[in-house]
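Our consortium's second objective concerns turning raw sequence data into structural hypotheses that experimental partners can test. To show how far this objective has progressed, the report includes one record in full. It was chosen at random from the queue rather than selected for favorable results. The single chain below, 313 residues long, was entered without modification.
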Amino acid sequence: MKQTLTAALAAATLTFSVIAVPAAADTRVTLKAAKAASSYYAMAVQLSEAAKSAAGLDVTVEESQGSVQNVKEAIRRPAGYVFTSPPSLIASAQAAKKPFEGETGYDVVRGLFPIPSLTMHWVVREDSGVKTFADLAGKSFIAGGKGSFGERKTGDVFAALGIADKVSFVDVELNAAVPALKNGQVAGFATAGSYPAPNVTEAGAGTPIRLLSLSAADLEKVKGDQQVIPAGTYPGVSYDVTTISLPVNAYTVAATDDETAYKLTKAFWESKAAMAKSNPWWGGVITSMLADMGATLHPGAAKYYAEAGIAVK
């Protein structure tokens, strides 16, 4: 049973648009996030508050679409454009590989800092009878939003596990996924975001849920870094969940002025510990993750790392 794999999951990345203003005025920042139900939207709110308090930046948060769009806009947007993306997508853009065939100019991308990784969650109702990926055969499932990492990865994983053509994929937006699960309209949904993901927490509030875990045999078939979501992260999920994740970083373009890049980078690192007190996903971001940036650092960011004594390979 197979229908078209369609939208359900908001894209798992953020987009920042920074508008340079005269030196005498405050820098205004428009911070575009993922869908409001996602963990990345919550991150965007925290980042905006950090930039305001630590760097004096005027920040507005807006919702945005996926990481593919974010990267594509890097060659169209003016100086000051800042966005987030998996480094693998940056590599695809610079090599003109799918979905960037025939496009050039992505050598303007510059790195700033890492953010929490995209972690795959496959959530099902406890009473659906689904305990393994194989049990999803014949079930209705919300797989992910168009062009999002969650959609692509769910498709790849289900194909690798041999169930892609056995699941009935449902076409709804992310904000309809939790109600659809709670109302019994679907067996479950996929979402990509750092844990704890707000929509998964919401799904487990009042409705018993399970998170599907990849076995050792499954991990040999799928691509991605192994990630363990600790027991107790979500209501009723009292066991460790083995899944996969993908690194995500904040980027800008070469034309962005050094001061803006410096202020954003400094505000992020100096506010990270405080942000982690509210949302533990920030605690997993460490300086060694800069090795996976996948792009040349922006000079403004490099200046901060040099001042802070942070070695960047």
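The partners drew two points from this record. Confidence is low (pLDDT under 50) at residues 1-26. The two ends are 48 Å apart (CA to CA). Both points have been shared with the crystallography group to help prioritize constructs.
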